[in-house]
Amino acid sequence: MTDIKSLTLAELETALCAMGQPKYRALQIFRWLHGAGVGFEGMTNLPKALRESLEGEYFIRDVQIETKQVSKIDGTVKYLYRLYDGEYIESVFMRYKHGNTVCISTQAGCRMGCRFCASTLRGLKRNLSASEMLSQIQAAERDTGEKVGGVVLMGMGEPLDNYGNVLRFLTLVSDKNGIGLSHRHISLSTCGLVDNIRRLAGEKLQITLSVSLHAPNDELRRSIMPIANRYTVDELLDACREYEDATGRRISFEYALISGVTDTPSLADELGRRLKGTLCHVNLIPVNEIKERRYKSATRAAADAFVRRLAEYGITATVRRRLGADISAACGQLRDEHDAYTKEEG
Ligand code: SAH
C-alpha cells in the first residue's frame, strides 16, 4: 500500500498510466487529495471501478484533532493532532494582520536535544510523511474555515533531519493544483545541520531559512544545544552565507533570550561582531519556560537592551511577539501535558 497524498502530480500520472488510466485522472485525484480532503469514495468524478482499485492500492493519510486550545487574547489556535499510529504532534494556527500562518511539525518528537525545548524531552519517535505535514494545514483550514497564507516549519522536530520528506512537502504544498502556497511564504527553521543547509542551498528554493543560533560562540552554544558539538558557529555561518548566495534570501537568526545565560550585554556585542555585514535579521525569543528545565525568560528590559546593542552593529533585531500566551506556549508542551494527563488517567 502506498501513501497517495505524498505523491507528486507527476508520480501520480505515472501510476495512473500504469493502471491503464488516462492522465487527466491523476489531476482529478490530486485536486481531491489536496483540496476537499475526501476519501476515495467521495471522489465523485471518478468511475466506481477506479475508486475501488485505488482503495486496494493506496491509503490517504490525515491527522485527527485530539485537543484544541483557542487563545482568548488573540485567537491563536493550538492543535494536538493524533496520527494514524497513535503518535501525537502539535500545530499552531496564528492570525496576523497580513493573513493566517500555520506552524507545523515535521517529526513526532525530536532527537536534537536542545536543553530549553520540550519537543525533544522524550527523543524522536518518527519522521512525518509529506502527507502528514500537508494534513496539518488542511485540518487547520477545515477547522477554522479560513485560508492559510503562510507556513512555518517550526513546530515539533528538526526539518533538516527529515530532509527527503520535507523537500517532498515543499514541492507538494506549492503545486498550483493543490494548496498552491508560494515558497516565499514558507519558512524553515533548523537548529543548524550544516551539511543539509548546504544541500538545501543547492535546491535554490525561495523559502526563508531560519537558523536557531541562540549563542554567539561555541562554548555557550554547546552548553545549550548538542548539535553545536558537531558543527562550530563558524561552519554554521559559512553555510548560511552559502544559502544566501545561492538563493538571494536573507537569513533569519533565532536567538532565545535566557535570563543570565544568553541575554547579557557582552553576548549582544559578541553576536553583533559575528553577524556584522551579514544580510540577516535576528528574531529574539524570550525563552518559554518549561517545567522540566530551570531556564528563566529574559526581562523585557534586557530584551530591549539587546536589540539596541545589536543595532550598533547594523543588525536589525525584533523581539518576537508572543501569540497565544494564555495557551500552552513552548514547543512540545501540549503533547507533554496530554501525556501527563493520559498517564494520570491510566
Ligand atoms: N528544530 C528546528 C525547528 C523547531 S523549534 C529548530 O531548532 O530550529 C522552533 C524554534 O523554537 C527554534 O528556534 C527553537 O530553538 C525554539 N524553541 C524551542 N524551545 C523553545 C523555548 N522553550 N523557548 C523559546 N524558543 C524555543
Helix content: 25-40%
Computed over alpha carbons, the radius of gyration is: 21 Å
What gap, in angstroms, lies between the N and C termini? 34 Å
Helix count from the secondary structure assignment: 11
* Weakly predicted, low-confidence segments: 341-346
**Count of distinct strands:** 14
Q: Give me the CATH superfamily of the largest domain.
A: Aldolase class I
Structural class: alpha/beta
Mean pLDDT: 93
Offer a quick outline of the entry:
This protein is α/β, with parallel strands linked by helices and 346 residues long.
Describe this structure in words.
This protein is 36% helix and 20% strand. Residues 341-346 have low confidence and may be disordered. The chain has helices at residues 9-18, 24-34, 48-57, 130-144, 163-173, 194-203, 218-224, 233-247, 265-275, 300-311, 333-345, and strands spanning 2-3, 58-59, 64-70, 77-82, 88-96, 99-103, 107-109, 124-127, 150-153, 186-190, 208-212, 251-257, 280-286, 316-319. With 346 residues, it is of the alpha/beta class. It is globular and about 70 Å long. A 10-stranded mixed β-sheet has the order 3-4-5-6-9-10-11-12-13-14. A two-stranded parallel ribbon has the order 1-2. It has 2 domains: 2-59, DNA polymerase, domain 1 (Orthogonal Bundle), CATH 1.10.150.530; 64-345, TIM Barrel. Bound molecules: S-adenosyl-L-homocysteine. Residues 112, 114, 116-117, 154, 158, 189-191, 212, 254, 256, 285, 287-288, 290, 330-331 line the site of S-adenosyl-L-homocysteine.
